[in-house]
Structures are given as C-alpha cells and as structure tokens.
Amino acid sequence: xxxxxxxxxxxxxxxxxxxxxxxxxxxxxxxxxxxxxxxxxxxxxxxxxxxxxxxxxxxxxxxxxxxxxxxxxxxxxxxxxxxxxxxxxxxxxxxxxxxxxxxxxxxxxxxxxxxxxxxxxxxxxxxxxxxxxxxxxxxxxxxxxxxxxxxxxxxxxxxxxxxxxxxxxxxxxxxxxxxxxxxxxxxxxxxxxxxxxxxxxxxxxxxxxxxxxxxxxxxxxxxxxxxxxxxxxxxxxxxxxxxxxxxxxxxxxxxxxxxxxxxxxxxxxxxxxxxxxxxxxxxxxxxxxxxxxxxxxxxxxxxxxxxxxxxxxxxxxxxxxxxxxxxxxxxx
Length: 332
What we know:
By secondary structure, the chain is an alpha/beta fold. Helix content is about 60%, strand content about 10%.
C-alpha cells in the first residue's frame, strides 16, 4: 500500500527499502520526502549519490551504468528524476527489470512531479512498489491547510493561538513553500512557546500570492470573491499595470485559442503543448473554455484595452475599478 507524505518518516525509522517511488504535484512535499530518504540512506552508509534527470532522449543505459560498482564507495543512492511520470517503453522495461532484482548496495529513488491514475496503475510503478515503497504526494486541500500549518509550527516548538492559524491560512492561500519560509522565519525570530496574533502581524510578511498569475486564475475560474481580494492586494502593492494587463490578456487569448482548436477537432494534448500550457494549469484553461464563450472573451479583451488606456491617462475612469468590473463580468 502506498504511503502518504506524513507517513514516510515512521516508515524510514522501521528500515530502509531498496526502492522508493515518490510522486505527486506538490513541489514542497515532494522535495521534503526525497530529502528524508536521502538523509536516511546517508545515515545507513549510502554516502555516494548519483543524480539522473530523465528528459527527452534520455539513454536508459545510464541507469545501468550508475549501478556499476564504485571505486570510492560500496553503497550508493541513485536519484532518478522522472518529471512526467511517463518513462516510455524502454524506461518502463528497465525499471521493471530493476524491481525484479534490486541491488542491496543500491537505493533507487524515483521521483515524479506529474502523477496521474495511469502512472499509478502502470506495471513499472506496481513493480517498483512491490520491490520497495511508494509515496503518493497529495495536494493540501483548503480545509486541510490550517491543520498542516498547526503541525508545522508545533514541530518548531511553537504553540499558535487559534486565530493565528486562520490568519496564516488566509495570507498564504495554500502556497506551501511560502508557508514553510514564513514559519521558519517566525520560529527564528519568535522562538518556541505561544505565538499570538501580534507576533504574526509583526513578523510575517503578506506572502499571499497577490500576483498576476493568481488574479488570472481567479478570473478564468469565475472566483469573484478571491479575485477581488487579490486585485485589492495588487493595488496596495502598486503593481505595475502593464505587466498585470499583459498577463490577463495572455490568459484570455490562450483560452480562446484553446476553444477554437477544440471546436476544430484538434487533439487536446497537442493543443496544450502548442500553447505552452503547463500541466497544472490545463484543467483551468479547459474549464474556462467551456464556461466562457467567444462573446465573453471578446468583451474581456475590450475591457483590458480600456484599462490599458485608463492607466495611461488616455481614457476616463479608474483602471483598478475597471479590473473589478472585468472580474464581475467573467464571474457571471
């Protein structure tokens, strides 16, 4: 059975497996799980480490070469980074063969940033799990974030007041990397013991993702409440409007291009690749293309043009108020 990220530490204390498959789309948790395995392996004498980055054209014989005996150490950890979670036919064969007879002097750690049901059920993943341990990294849901923050603070010896967790969860918006940085900084400055609201307000910067990408995300999903809040944060920070408008216009054009391509019968995978839409943003574009029609997208482009003129003093009106109007229009 696959482990969750929070179960890995206890598993490592019970013993080191010859193979680890660690996969999921939450970068911080993926990194921390890999760090835990590396530390545990190092503590048990696996001093040498070899990093293999699987990219297009990767020669899978490199994995066999990495497993060759070393002149400097008899035990080694092989850090194989398979970003897509898709090793291809040759890669699947090599990994399956490795799983059949793992070397006791080697720890193979395979990490994947993209992890879907197809990858989880694949033969190579199943064989690696049988030979060792699989760790599935699941995103922290909004309702899970407060508890996650509380546990993190307790690990540093801090005892946060109830309202403290709410403030952090609201400001950090699920950005786990920013959350770790802020908690580490809070622990360094405040130290162990009770943490009050005043402590947080004095120490923690507003690390919420008040940026153009967050606003674009809320715009496409029709999330009016969060969109207005992010827009207000961008205004408070005097965010340059040209950069912001460029990001919003790019998302509108990408959504319309995707809609037209789908109506034209193109293959979705190829369209996303052509439009340079990252894997973790594909569902946003897909959903927006279904929700927003050409009329709404054309109207949004016209509103962005007006906001651009307002920001340059060439049209009457407040550009930030017009951004709020745009969010309202696209949330309908």
